[in-house]
Automatic annotation (TrEMBL):
Keywords: Mitochondrion, Ribonucleoprotein, Ribosomal protein. One of its GO terms (molecular function) is structural constituent of ribosome. Component of the mitochondrial ribosome small subunit (28S) which comprises a 12S rRNA and about 30 distinct proteins. GO terms for biological process: translation. It is found in: Mitochondrion. This is Small ribosomal subunit protein uS5m. Belongs to the universal ribosomal protein uS5 family. InterPro entries: Ribosomal_Su5_D2-typ_SF (IPR020568), Ribosomal_uS5 (IPR000851), Ribosomal_uS5_C (IPR005324), Ribosomal_uS5_N (IPR013810), Ribosomal_uS5m_N (IPR048584), Ribsml_uS5_D2-typ_fold_subgr (IPR014721). It comes from Chironomus riparius. Its main location: mitochondrion. The keyword Ribonucleoprotein applies.
Length: 452
């Protein structure tokens, strides 16, 4: 009781000290007047302590509690800053220099009011809960890159709109995403992120670029916008492949590209595959030799695409007709390119390159691995098999060459002895001759008598 009276007297003395007497009026305190004192605290428990201490009070448990299993149902710590973008709040305004670049191309970016996002709060809460949960969040198979959750091979969308020009139908793929370091005299070892991307509209228009920045989102945005400013037009043959076989190189990287028919698909390096999908090429075979750096591969492949020649250009360069044989058309010869002035046989030099593959590859030859003989090459039975096969081992190739060059299968004695032809060819000619003599449009019917 005495302690309470002492505390009350102290509060009263402090209250009288705080009373001020004005010059125009006098404040009088009567003894019978009740004085009410309201106590308030200007600081909060949640403001006084840092975030680490507050989270510790919710997420921690003593060692004895852990042994008893009390740590199973605890709340996991959440990053409340997760999903927040500097400069983009509920108003969703784009600020140059904060949430957008100051200059885009040759245009000065202005403050822009973006459309409202009603699901913004829900997305932020979902993102926080996903990071706080113990389960690993799986990415869709179509959204994954070349290796797990890493950026190379992933799509980052179309480039940003420039004034009234939008990049509809474009897509951007990350080819390389890595950390780079630069030693500074005053800042020491400075760390940045480097991105190398390719963008295209899948219809013959594509470009590539690289960029560096401190933040991951900033470097990806800068790289894809740079690639959109360096677009190149690439001609497509029949809308699905290249015009001809060719060899290209950049640095120590060499690429040998072969034209393929429809249905073949893309059999090539994964970086070349991403470029083909963005350009619009669907059927291709490419072999990479030398250095396998993705930047050199992309640059070499683009150089080869831009150096392609159309059929008429190839025919004009050689001064000869360009004839194509396709297996899907039965290897029937088809003239695809004709020069303005075709040379005669006597005008062709003896040392001139007449092989199409050698001419298309600029005299370069694809490196092939040495084939080692099979394990049964020295066996007795395999030698007997080779002896039996010796008389007809090249028949298939020879037949193919004869059909392409002469249109029929014949030997060196055919001109002297016209009957020196395959039996099927003779029977066919006899049937056609008989048919023309009889004047029948259809094959004659053969009657068969059946004994009863």
């Amino acid at each position: 009781m005495a302690l309470r009276l002492l505390q009350t007297s102290r509060y009263l003395s402090r209250a009288f000290q705080n009373l001020t007497i004005c010059s125009t009026s006098t404040s009088v305190l009567n003894r019978n007047h009740d004085l009410n004192l309201n106590f308030s605290r200007n600081t909060s428990f949640f403001v006084k302590l840092p975030a680490t201490e507050l989270w510790k009070g919710v997420t921690s448990v003593s060692n004895a509690g852990k042994k008893r299993g009390r740590a199973k149902g605890l709340i996991r710590r959440k990053d409340l800053n997760r999903g927040q973008v500097i400069g983009l709040g509920k108003a969703n305004i784009q600020w140059p220099g904060l949430s957008a670049p100051i200059i885009r191309g040759r245009e000065l970016v202005q403050r822009n009011q973006l459309p409202a996002d009603p699901d913004r709060e829900a997305k932020i809460l979902k993102l926080r809960d996903a990071m706080a949960s113990k389960k690993f969040q799986k990415i869709s198979t179509l959204d994954r890159g070349w290796s797990g959750n890493k950026m190379p091979g992933r799509s980052i969308g179309a480039p940003d709109q420039i004034a009234e020009d939008s990049f509809e139908g474009f897509d951007t793929k990350v080819i390389e995403f890595k950390q780079v370091f630069n030693m500074k005299g005053n800042l020491g070892r400075k760390r940045r992120l480097s991105a190398f991307v390719v963008t295209g509209n899948k219809n013959g228009l594509a470009g590539f670029a690289s960029a560096k920045a401190v933040d991951g989102r900033a470097v990806l945005r800068k790289a894809k916008n740079r690639a959109a400013q360096k677009l190149m037009h690439i001609e497509l043959c029949d809308g699905h492949t290249v015009f001809h076989d060719y060899a290209c190189s950049f640095g120590l990287t060499k690429i040998f590209v072969q034209k393929k028919p429809e249905g073949h698909g893309l059999i090539c390096h994964r970086a070349i595959k991403e470029i083909c999908q963005l350009v619009g090429i669907k059927n291709l075979y490419a072999k990479v030799e030398g250095s396998k750096g993705v930047q050199h591969i992309v640059k070499a492949f683009f150089l080869g695409l831009l150096a392609q020649k159309k059929y008429d250009d190839i025919a004009e360069a050689k001064g000869l007709n360009l004839v194509e044989y396709r297996p899907e058309f039965g290897n029937f010869p088809k003239v695809v390119g004709t020069p303005k002035v075709c040379r005669e046989q006597s005008d062709i030099r003896y040392d001139e390159i007449m092989d199409y593959n050698t001419f298309a590859m600029d005299g370069k030859v694809v490196l092939k691995k040495k084939k080692f003989p099979p394990f049964y090459a020295n066996s007795y039975g395999y030698h007997i098999h080779l002896k039996k096969l010796e008389g007809r081992r090249n028949h298939k190739k020879i037949k193919f060459d004869m059909l392409c060059e002469h249109g029929e299968i014949k030997s060196y004695l055919t001109d002297k002895y016209p009957d020196a032809r395959p039996m099927g060819y003779i029977l066919r000619n006899m049937y056609l001759k008989k048919k023309s003599e009889e004047g029948q449009d259809e094959a004659p019917e053969v009657e068969v008598e059946v004994e009863q």
